[in-house]
Amino acid sequence: MKLRKIAQRFLLPQFAVTMYYGLKYGAMVSPRAEVELSPLLTIGRGSQIGSFCKIKATDGPLAIGRNVSVGSNSFISSEGGGVEIGDDTMFGPGVSVVGNSYKFDRLDVPMCLQEKTSKGIRIGRDVWVGAGAVILDGVTVGEGAILGAGAVVTRDVPARAIVAGVPAKVIGSRERESAAPPGPGRP
What we know:
Blueprint: H1 2-11, H2 14-25, E1 28-29, E2 34-35, E3 41-43, E4 48-49, E5 54-56, E6 62-64, E7 69-70, E8 75-77, E9 83-85, E10 90-91, E11 96-98, E12 101-102, E13 116-117, E14 121-123, E15 128-129, E16 134-136, E17 140-141, E18 146-147, E19 152-153, E20 161-164, E21 169-173
Parallel strand pairs: 1-4, 2-5, 3-6, 4-7, 5-8, 6-9, 7-10, 8-11, 9-14, 10-15, 11-16, 14-17, 15-18, 16-19, 18-20
Antiparallel strand pairs: 12-13, 20-21
C-alpha cells in the first residue's frame, strides 16, 4: 500500500489526475493542483479545484459537492471522521480545512507521536469561505453561512450566520431583512 502511494505521488503526472477527475466526475482540477487519486475522494460535477491546491483523502472520506469552487493555494485534508463540502460552496484562496488533530495530554511523549483524533468536518451547501480562513476538526458549518477572510473556525457555525475573527465569532446573519420586525426607518 505504501509503495503504491509513493509511486502514485511521484510517478503519476498531474495532468493524468486532472483528466481522471474531469472524465469521471465532470470536475475541473488544475494540473497545478496536487490532488490524490483515492477511492475515498469524490468531486461533484461542475466543481473547480484551483492551482496549487492540495487535496488529501488517504485516511478518510472526502466528499466535495457539485459546483464547489476551491481557490488557489487551499488545503483540504480528511482523516477517519471525513470531510463533507456541500453543493455551491465557494472557497477563497489559501483556505485550510484540517480534518484531524493530535492529543497533547502526555508530557513524556512528543505531541507528534501522540494519538491523532478525527471528529470530521461538515460544511453545508451555499457557504462562502473567505480567503485564508481555517476550519478545524469537529466543526459543522450551516447552510448559507459566510466565514470571513482569515477566520479561524473552532466551533459550529449556525445556518446563514456571518462569522469572523480568531477564534471566529458570529458578527451578523444573512436572514432576510424583511423577516425583521418593523422598526424606525423600516416600512
